[in-house]
Design brief:
With 368 residues, this protein is mostly helical. It has helices at 3-26, 39-67, 69-86, 106-125, 131-153, 158-174, 179-202, 204-210, 215-225, 230-240, 264-296, 301-325, 343-361; strands spanning 97-99, 102-104. A hairpin with a 2-residue loop joins strand 1 and strand 2.
């Protein structure tokens, strides 16, 4: 795929995402507190600053980020620790650093930092194929992922932790290691999942006692399994009754909590129906396919890993968000990239687009 086509696909997709995001968030005004009635305007501002950051990363910032990636990683971990000690609790979570009227989530920026840091560590490992060296690499990758995962889990922000470990597993399985390591890791994952499943079905009281302070996480999973819960039920009602073209723009009468963030997809479907949802999913697939095609070309190893990490992050978020609103996956409070309201998350995604555009811009130097 030519550089111009990659740029064009991404830019057109981004413009469509922007329009869908603003239109959808605007329709949530009747369901929100009066103090939140300007969220669509804030989203426009977030897009504006996010695009400026995207352009900076495309032309200058990515090289600086790779050079000082470990300092950025340490700085974000310090911010996560700061939140746990001094952060304000909002809805039971200490996820946001608040300065006057500005707030942001370090856990969102940590996703990109972790992708770059793990990729650079793997790059340094290139050519070291002994069992001992591979073991050291795996330990480094695990520790680098574990530190922010613990800090983020304690906030708590389970969704971000899932993404951290998904990034880690993706990086490991793409690295050229001895096949024994993949077998060992797969067995460990199967063992842990089996233990969780057994405890859930046979020792539920034991789990409840351990996770007393995190009951809402279990409640979300249980509600999904039983296909119950006010939020999910109303989401399914809105989607199933929207028809081909929706209830009409800004005429949705069905309420569900967080329509501007976690449940932006049923908000959009309620307004534009089945045809609108097909169009949105088509644009998402074009966007994803563009990144996949860029991954296939010959580029530097660490850039390839960074692209794969970004793709996995965005793809998981898309699947998880849409899946949970349809009752196919547990409700984990994960936004839909580029569509859901949120400054930190949106800027993180636009940051990642800047990296993609930078790699696309400089890819010719890797061709023979």
């Amino acid at each position: 795929m030519k550089k111009q086509i990659v740029n064009l696909n991404i830019i057109i997709s981004l413009i469509i995402f922007f329009i869908i995001s603003i239109l959808s968030i605007y329709t949530t005004i009747p369901f929100l507190k009066q103090s939140l009635s300007n969220l669509y305007l804030k989203q426009i501002i977030f897009y504006f600053f996010g695009i400026l950051i995207m352009l900076f990363i495309k032309y200058k910032g990515f090289d600086l980020l790779k050079r000082y990636h470990f300092l950025v990683y340490i700085g974000l971990n310090i911010l996560l620790l700061f939140l746990l000690i001094f952060g304000y609790s909002i809805n039971g979570s200490k996820c946001w650093i608040i300065i006057n009227s500005i707030s942001f989530q370090p856990s969102e920026l940590m996703k990109i930092s972790l992708i770059i840091t793990l990729s650079m560590v793997i790059k340094k490992h290139e050519g070291k194929n002994s069992i001992k060296e591979e073991f050291v690499l795996l330990v480094k990758l695990f520790i680098l992922t574990l530190i922010p995962s613990i800090l983020t889990f304690l906030e708590p922000d389970t969704g971000a932790v899932i993404i951290y470990f998904l990034i880690l597993l993706t990086m490991i399985f793409l690295t050229k290691l001895n096949k024994k390591w993949y077998l060992i890791i797969s067995l460990i994952i199967i063992f842990l999942l089996s233990c969780i499943t057994i405890l859930y079905f046979f020792k539920k009281d034991f789990i409840l006692n351990i996770l007393t302070n995190n009951m809402y996480r279990l409640e979300r999973i249980i509600n999904w399994q039983e296909n119950s819960g006010y939020q999910l039920e109303n989401s399914l009602i809105a989607i199933s009754n929207s028809g081909l073209t929706g209830f009409g723009y800004n005429k949705n009468i069905i309420y569900f909590p967080e329509p501007q963030t976690d449940f932006i997809f049923p908000t959009f479907v309620a307004n534009f129906g089945l045809l609108g949802s097909i169009f949105l999913i088509f644009i998402i697939l074009v966007f994803d396919a563009t990144i996949l095609n860029l991954i296939k070309i010959k580029i530097d190893l660490e850039n390839k890993y960074i692209l794969v990490g970004i793709f996995i992050m965005l793809f998981y978020l898309q699947i998880q968000n849409i899946g949970m609103t349809l009752g196919l996956l547990p409700i984990t409070g994960i936004p839909l990239p580029f569509i859901s309201y949120g400054g930190s998350s949106l800027i993180t995604y636009l940051f990642s687009l800047g990296i993609i555009l930078n790699i696309n811009k400089t890819r010719d130097k890797y061709l023979n």
